[in-house]
């Protein structure tokens, strides 16, 4: 499970995206390997809908706190 650490603790990236109405289309974001300086663009490895392990990139929208 890929997680993004923020000031208020860890957040599962799949959950952050689905809370913003992003349809993951069956993807499982397994591991985050890099993040941009602003914390919004994240890349990693995951399981595609066909079951293959492959890379992913996601832009996590800013959230109001």
Structure in words:
The chain has 65 residues and is mostly beta strands. It has one domain. Helices cover 11% and strands 46% of the residues. The chain contains 1 helix and 5 strands; from the N terminus they run ββαβββ.
Radius of gyration (CA) equals 11 Å
Secondary structural class: mainly beta
Strand content: over 45%
Tell me the major beta sheet.
3 strands, antiparallel
Number of domains: 1
Rough shape?
Answer: globular
H/E series: EEHEEE
Helix content: 10-25%
Distance between the termini: 23 Å
Identify low-pLDDT runs: none
What's the pLDDT, averaged over the residues? 86
Count of helix runs: 1
Task: Tell how many strands the DSSP assignment holds.
Answer: 5
Give the neighbour order of strands across the main sheet.
3-4-5
């Amino acid at each position: 499970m890929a997680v993004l650490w923020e000031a208020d603790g860890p957040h599962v990236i799949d959950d952050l995206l689905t809370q913003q109405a992003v349809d993951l289309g069956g993807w499982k974001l397994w591991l985050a390997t890099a993040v941009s300086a602003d914390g919004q663009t994240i890349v990693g490895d995951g399981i595609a809908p066909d079951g293959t392990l492959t890379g992913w990139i996601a832009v996590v929208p800013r959230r109001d706190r």
